[in-house]
Amino acid sequence: MARKNRINRKKTNGAVILLLAVGSALMFVPVLWIILSSFKSLAEIYRSPPTFLPERWIFTNYTEAVAQFRFLRYLWNSILVTLSATLITLIINSMAAFALSKYQFPGRSIIFILMLATLMIPIRVIMLPVYLMVARLGMANTLLGIIIPPAATPTGVFILRQYMLTISDEMIDAAKIDGAGHFSIYWKIMLPLCTPALAVVTVFSVMWRWNDFLWPLIVINREKLFTLQLALARFRGELVTDWNYVLAMTVLSIIPIVAVFAGMQKYLIQGIASTGLKG
Questions:
Q1: Model pTM score
Q2: Is 274 left (phi over 0), alpha (psi -120 to 50) or beta?
């Protein structure tokens, strides 16, 4: 009976793995098509029926697109916005999570509930008042107007708070007995122990900031400040769209996201499992 159960369990696991593998392959087909099409000529992209593999591999799509597209300028803007916004997000969210998880003060639960309630507010509802505030502060048409307003995220605070709750309070009490102040406990004890959760927030923040299109579109109208997403949209909006160049730039724009995810995959899985976000 036990042997039969093991065999049935192995068959079930094998079927689940096969189903997940097929689903993953199907989800990756559009990405693979974009990568392969970035090496095609414009005439081959418009061909009907379309071809999956390029008949002739054109590697100059990338070099010519970089030269025409001013890719490096837009890439630098995206990197600056993403890194700065992610760093500010980590600092603000970790401080808020530290206070909400390890300190008792009146209204703590209410503040946390109200913070989570903001997740139910559609982002488009608050864009106009936020933009008016950004304009009055003189941050319209600046990269600061993109970086600062979305810095504090309820999702990041929630993830970090849930992880910090798993850290023993006795460790903090011992640090207080040794004379450590609040900031020393936060900086030297809590942050190093929260590396997996910080990795989760980092990946989420990088993805949000790097792929953000609507908020930069509202704040920025000077071309030299465009991020990659804005520049790609403008490049596609001309009368004649060179899709071979657009696809080449699209492939280059997703490489940093893939690199960040691959580098932090270990901590990402550990952090998601520890904060209770797994399905």
A1: 0.81
A2: alpha
